[in-house]
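Dear support,

I submitted the protein below through the web form. The confirmation email said the job was done, but the results page showed an empty box. After a refresh the structure appeared. I'm attaching both so you can tell me whether what I see now is the final result or a partial one.
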Amino acid sequence: MSTPPIVPHREWEAAREALLVKEKELTRARDGERIFRTYFINNRGDEAMGSTWSYLDLTALGRQEEWEDSPEGSPQTPPYQWWHLHDEYEKAAT
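What the results page shows now:
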């Protein structure tokens, strides 16, 4: 198995910037001219581990975090009200 090359930071940053251009092209080709910045991360990579977040990030309403600026007229529910820990399901049902 081959590993990616080790490169200087400037070279890595230039490659990242080039990839970002391609990502933006894909995004525009996908949600149209309207792009919603619903959520972003910097210097973290754990978001890919949870596919729920990936799907929510693609929607116009995003994750509906309290700090998000949702479009006017869109529903704004308390974040994660649907999320219960496994030992809280009995309490939620009563």
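Response: this is the final, complete result; the empty box was a page-load delay. The chain has a mean pLDDT of 76.
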